[in-house]
Design brief:
Number of domains: 1
Pfam families: 3keto-disac_hyd
Distance between the termini: 60 Å
Radius of gyration: 24 Å
CATH class: Mainly Beta
Subcellular location: Membrane
Largest sheet: 7 strands, antiparallel
Shape: globular
GO molecular function: hydrolase activity
Number of helices: 2
Keywords: Membrane, Transmembrane, Transmembrane helix
CATH architecture: Sandwich
Number of strands: 13
InterPro entries: 3-keto-disaccharide_hydrolase
CATH superfamily: Exo-inulinase, domain 1
């Protein structure tokens, strides 16, 4: 009697209430997962292609192929002292990371093979990269153009007739996407700022390719 007096032994009704509470807590979580209402924000992403072998062809790592092909090559660093692995399109190929980034900074280093080349930067890609936005880095440093596309439909949204003097050197390009505003920078200088008020795409993956160039140091950083 004394032992039972000091030990809190749960009654049957209390056990049932605990089970009911567990069910009540689990059902909404399962529902959120099934309906897609609950979504985990993707973490930051970085790839300098050093973990792959020279000659590897996409898909590799987290990269998927949208069209054409991509391969890993080794080229001399800018100081010509070491070999550096980079990603190169095959037949103007495009590869992409299939994640739902909403607000983010997307940074990539690009080096044209020839001054006439026009590589591209893709972002907020959806539907297996069949829709989204891209920046066209025009050849001969003529400028930059922001496009929105859906399948074969392509719409020019904004452009800059000024451009950084990249030539055939590695240059750092950056896209900042927050809500429906898009900012494009080259070498830290802003060249395009555009607000898409016509059914904007507010989340999606990122991609590279669409023109002859070396790509390196691809980075995506979510922003608040």
């Amino acid at each position: 009697m004394l032992l039972r007096q000091y030990i809190n032994v749960p009654r049957l009704g209390e056990i049932m209430n605990l089970k009911e509470l567990t069910v009540i807590l689990i059902i909404p979580i399962v529902y959120l997962g099934v309906c897609g209402c609950f979504e985990i924000v993707p973490k930051s992403f970085y790839d300098n292609f050093s973990s792959y072998n020279v000659g590897d062809k996409a898909p590799f790592g987290e990269w998927k192929v949208k069209e054409g092909g991509f391969k890993i090559e080794a080229i001399l660093s800018e100081d010509k002292k070491t070999l550096n692995k980079v990603a190169v399109p095959i037949n103007n190929g495009i590869i992409y990371i299939d994640k739902n980034y909403t607000d983010f900074k997307f940074i990539v280093d690009i080096k044209r093979l020839e001054e006439s080349d026009s590589p591209k930067i893709y972002f907020r890609l959806i539907n297996n990269a069949n829709a989204g936005y891209y920046i066209d880095i025009e050849g001969f440093d003529r400028g930059y153009v922001l496009y929105k596309f859906n399948g074969t439909k392509v719409e020019k949204l904004a452009e800059s007739y000024d451009a950084a003097p990249a030539g055939t050197d590695f240059y750092r390009y950056e896209v900042v996407a927050k809500d429906n505003k898009i900012i494009f920078l080259a070498g830290g200088q802003k060249y395009i700022e555009y607000t898409d008020n016509n059914t904007p795409i507010l989340k999606g993956g990122i991609g590279i390719g669409g023109g002859r160039a070396y790509y390196d140091n691809v980075r995506v950083e979510p922003i608040e």
